[in-house]
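Reviewer 2 asked us to include a model.

Predict the structure of this chain.
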Amino acid sequence: MPRDFHLDFHPPTAVKIHLISGNNSISQSGNAIFENAICTKLIQIINDRVNKRFELLPTKVPLAEASNFDVVEKIAEAEERAKRRTTGRRRLSSHRRSKRQQRRMHAFLRGFDWRKINALFLDYSMVTPLRITTNGIEVGTSGQISMAGVTTPFVAAPLALPNEAPKSMLTMIVSDFVPNTLMYHGHRVGLFNTKVEPRTPSLGPMMRTTCDLSTGSLFCLGDIFPTLRDTYPNKYLMLEFKTLHPPNMIIKSEKDGGIKFSVIGLITLTGLNGMIPTGNERPLGSMEINLKAKVDMRLASSFVRGKLTLEDIKFTTRTPKVLTQEELDDAGFLSREIMQRMVNDILKQGIPIPVHPLFKLSKPKLSLTNRAMVFQTDFDLNEAIIKQLTSANLRKS
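Predicted model (structure tokens):
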């Protein structure tokens, strides 16, 4: 009898099955019978359990769940929904409802309003058939982030994998189409809208029209905009930012400038009578902002996160009696740090890497090419998930 069974992945060429025998006297016909028995069982398990369960998975995943997508839980939920369709039972279990609420709260605590982020979906669906080459197996997936029922008005630039033989198990090229779909649909749902008020950490003490030793702050927005200070003295301020157009990201190789980011938005300053907004305040002034920046990317788990360095910033007043254009022209340098922090808040949640949760990436490396990011990494298959997917009972394995 064989003492061990191995399913080994040998990058980049093949998946091989090895049967290791512990008894050299087993006849060739005995080996063939044993192999046929095991291979038949394997095929049955793959077809009747793994493939049927994968068919239940959605091709689009809520963006709020992209970083902690639970494959087994999603399949189990789909199986239970299928059972309810046949039995007429419609009620969600309290356990699954609680878990769903925890995920939404997790997204909220990470900085996004889950009511907005849950409107966006990351699409894992295949757009090209599997292709076997001398370098391995190639497949193209969508990677698009979108809203249900809303068409993205642009398409991805043509992509090609590097010609050289890969040194890592997995090479992935991600078009700048992916972050730009996030920017486009995120803009539509107001995902990047943000506010800074007196209670905001770090920037909060600056949210005043008047500041001196008695206020506990030696520098505030009133110093940048003296007409606002003179018109509305001793006011707390709330700064609200919203995008007027979808932000834009263009990726080039490092020698050609790297990653460029641009955004046009509207900043509204509202006067407050105290530290906490009541909802009854009225805007004092507003301005358009047009900024361009360079973005340095870093890998964090299954996300790419960016850090922005401003290259150009321009303000245009919409209320010249309160925010004069001359003051806004002078404010560019002084307000650079404030705006840099605000835009970094837009980018800090990151761009999800569209990798199936079945894979665990190991020390991925990132490089840039024209209109795309290239990831190279080794990976491990998630053994716990595979064990559950191949078991007869999905939840008890």
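The radius of gyration is 27 Å. The first strand starts at residue 2 and ends at 10. We have added this to the supplementary material.
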